[in-house]
Amino acid sequence: MALSFRISSSSPLICRATLSNGDNSRNYHTTDAAFIRRAADLSEMSAGLTSPHPNFGCVIATSSGKVAGEGYLYAQGTKPAEALAVEAAGEFSRGATAYLNMEPGDCHGDHTAVSALVQAGIERVVVGIRHPLQHLRGSAIRELRSHGIEVNVLGEDFESKVLEDARKSCLLVNAPLIHRACSRVPFSVLKYAMTLDGKIAASSGHAAWISSKLSRTRVFELRGGSDAVIVGGNTVRQDDPRLTARHGQGHTPTRIVMTQSLDLPEKANLWDVSEVSTIVVTQRGARKSFQKLLASKGVEVVEFDMLNPREVMEYFHLRGYLSILWECGGTLAASAISSSVIHKVVAFVAPKIIGGSKAPSPVGDLGMVEMTQALNLIDVCYEQVGPDMLVSGFLQPIPDLLPVIPSEDATVEIDPSVDPFEPSIIFFYKTWDLYGSFSNFSPHPIRMPYGEENDDYMTWSSVEHYYQANKFVGVENPKAYDCVEKIRTARSPEEAALIGRSTLRQKPELVRNDWEDVKIEVMYKALKCKFSTYPHLKSMLLSTIGTVLVEASPHDLFWGGGREGEGLNYLGRLLMQLRSEYLGESSVSAEKTSSA
């Protein structure tokens, strides 16, 4: 079989492959493909342990083809996969090849991953796919090449069947991020269990249990790898579900109930938010008294002018959600499919027959009258799980982001976070956003004292770690001290926030009495330490002169800007205050210099 390659002076391996015989070329491809697939597999190691985030895996292999080190991104705001792999490889990194399932990129302007590879002496980098987000796509690749490192991107520098299969694994593992970049809705999976005759419950509504225990365990794993699980009002009324992951540890997704009428029971398992939060989305004005009852239980209620799956998913996209699991009934499933927000279907088929003309099916009326109108799944997989058959496939193909590659000498960048109609506003929220370094979850450790009046400085993994811990500092209770230590040693900002927020709700006696009075000052001191410690962050902050900074959380009405600008945006305010102080210092310094 003839192979063609794009030859460039910056790609010596491509030249070698072109000049060598076909067998050697295939060997290069087979080796590269195997290590890229391993990097993709590694990147999923944190699934179910933390809130979903971009999946990064890195494998470092020596010239003899042996693995020297591996690493994967544990959570948003933690050490990059590349840095972990370099640490594991040690001196064997020098002259080795690094295999990445996706181009590095977390915080824009943060070069930790690239620096780790450069300083370790990596000679070549093979990348499965470029970063899906436009403001990060191509940036790390250009930087690596500027340091003289050979970089090959699958599907661009060379092609073959084995490499295309490896590249596909990279697309699959980051399907949520790719869909987020292209469609501006979270990646949604419709899951259901049905009998062999296509029923999800008996005609009475009874549905426990259709599938086997092994299948239910797989469902718990699916939940643990999702940001949220969504059901309709009828599921709450009929089944009274808990919708927990039930794996005893790690990430538990938010529960979402979608109901137009808000006709829900006053007592339900989902109203217990001691362990995990519940959000009810409904039509504006529906049952205001019941909304107040839910709010009193700690359940968040979000109203929509027109309640439909598309608007709801666009809202949760704004909240930063990447992946949502739909475990709803047939009516809501049909509405979601019709709204084109379902990307993948996972169906457990049990070898049972229950019959019944009125027994519900997994998907309601889609308005189709001929079999030719049926929706076909793509990339269908079949797997036996105990006595059940698991059938899965995509309703929508994963977008291919090969086009739109920034040129090597591009000097003008378009800021996708700036609304063209409001050019003076810059939004930030998740660490992967253009201004993600402004997030409290960004991976920038700070050295701050333990408490307000303590000179004992210690390192906090992020601003979020420090802020959450300070809720309990100084309280004369051993459990408060234990809580501070749990937060300080939490592996990720996400986990630190979870400990702090849940303890605040469940054990208010451990919270310092003056917390509401001092929390803004605590946040400000942490931000000042962060931006003073990292010069590139200070430069990024000063580059926003003349703009309004808004933390784009649609649900945090204190620190964020809110869904419709109704939030107080204190995080944005503090950053603008800090920016003004830096500008004032620069002015004073300039005046002293000119008068000297």
Give the arrangement of secondary structure elements.
Layout: H1 12-19, H2 22-43, E1 57-61, E2 67-72, H3 81-89, E3 97-102, H4 112-120, E4 124-129, H5 139-146, E5 150-153, H6 161-173, H7 175-183, E6 187-195, H8 213-224, E7 228-232, H9 233-239, E8 254-258, E9 278-283, H10 288-296, E10 300-304, H11 309-318, E11 323-326, H12 330-338, E12 344-350, E13 378-385, E14 388-394, E15 425-428, E16 446-449, E17 457-460, H13 463-469, H14 478-488, H15 493-506, H16 515-533, H17 535-542, E18 548-551, H18 570-595
Parallel strand pairs: 3-4, 4-5, 6-11, 6-12, 7-8, 7-11, 8-9, 9-10, 15-18
Antiparallel strand pairs: 1-2, 1-3, 12-14, 13-14, 16-17
**How many DSSP-defined strands?**
18
Distance between the first and last residues' Cα: 74 Å
Strand content: 15-25%
Structural class: alpha/beta
How large is the count of helical segments? 18
Overall geometry: globular
Calculate the mean pLDDT score and round it.
Answer: 88
Let me know the CATH homologous superfamily of the domain at 181-367 and 375-394: Dihydrofolate Reductase, subunit A
Can you tell me the CATH topology of the domain at 181-367 and 375-394?
Answer: Dihydrofolate Reductase, subunit A
CATH architecture classification of the domain at 181-367 and 375-394:
3-Layer(aba) Sandwich
InterPro entries: CMP_dCMP_dom, Cytidine_deaminase-like, DHFR-like_dom_sf, Eubact_RibD, NADAR, RibD_C, RibDG_C, Riboflavin_Biosynth_HTPR
Pfam families: dCMP_cyt_deam_1 (PF00383), NADAR (PF08719), RibD_C (PF01872)
Pathway: Cofactor biosynthesis; riboflavin biosynthesis; 5-amino-6-(D-ribitylamino)uracil from GTP: step 3/4
GO molecular function, one term: diaminohydroxyphosphoribosylaminopyrimidine deaminase activity
